[in-house]
Amino acid sequence: MSVLDRFRLDGKRLFITGGSRGLGREMAIAIADAGADVVLVGRDQESLNATAADIQKLGRSAEVIAADIGLPKDCERACQQALDQFGPIDILINNVGGRRINVPVEEQSLEQWQQIMDINLTSTFLCTKLIGGEMVKRGNGGRVINIASISGMVANRGIGGRSYETSKAAVIQFTRAIATDWAPHKITVNAICPGGFMTEPNVRWASQNPQVIDTFKKQIPMGDFGQPEDLGPLAVYLASDAARYVTGAAIVIDGGYTLW
After folding, report:
1. How far apart are the C-alpha atoms of 91 and 51, rounded to whole Å?
2. What is the CA radius of gyration of the chain?
3. CA separation for the pair 113, 95 (Å, rounded)
4. Span 112-152, pLDDT tens digits
5. Do 185 and 231 touch, CB atoms closer than 8 A?
6. Can you tell me the distance from the alpha carbon of 31 to that of 14, in angstroms, rounded to the nearest whole number?
7. Is 240 exposed, middle or buried (0-12, 13-18, 19+ CB in 10 A)?
8. Which residues are catalytic?
9. CA–CA distances in Å: residue 36 to residues 15, 56, 92
10. How far apart are CA 94 and CA 122, in angstroms?
11. Class of domain 3-252
């Protein structure tokens, strides 16, 4: 068997939140290209349909569920719908997340704090509990990949709203804890920690906060931001048999930003 065969995902099915745009879209397409079928979850029906069409061109099936994963009840509904209609699920990517606000802690409301916790942390918990929990029950192993952030390891310069850093740090520790619990079930649980990537929200952020973005870019040893497609190969690796002995890891992909 070729070493490249260990990266194949034929016969597997992926459930990915925020899978129609940005980093989620690129990971979904990469995993489909490696052979897996996909269930895409997102808020925008049009972008869901467009990404599903691109996946189908690769010869894989692509189902879509419109839901706001940042709302716990909607998150639970989407997970149950996927299990009922499209299961079993072999690979879970908890990708939904975001900063959304730039408010100092001393001015941040409890509602704003909870909103960021729900989209970044509560959604990860619920999808892991429901989708990952079914992997445990089936007893055939599985893969859980949580999209955290280098912001779970360092504080960003010149940006308010430390709910983002806090929630992403919690995602990393949640990843480690669940990895220990589920290792006996042959389910690996890992986190990807991206640095600066020019997704749609960050392009908007750059236009509104050019000085912050310029300062960030100057701190990257490789001299530039990452592109969404850079995450695809790493997601394929963690989802595949090639990473069967990797669990509890928080893998940084940031152009060297956190090196100094």
Report:
1. 18
2. 18
3. 19
4. 999 999 999 999 999 999 999 999 999 999 999 999 999 99
5. no
6. 8
7. buried
8. 164
9. 10, 11, 12
10. 11
11. alpha beta
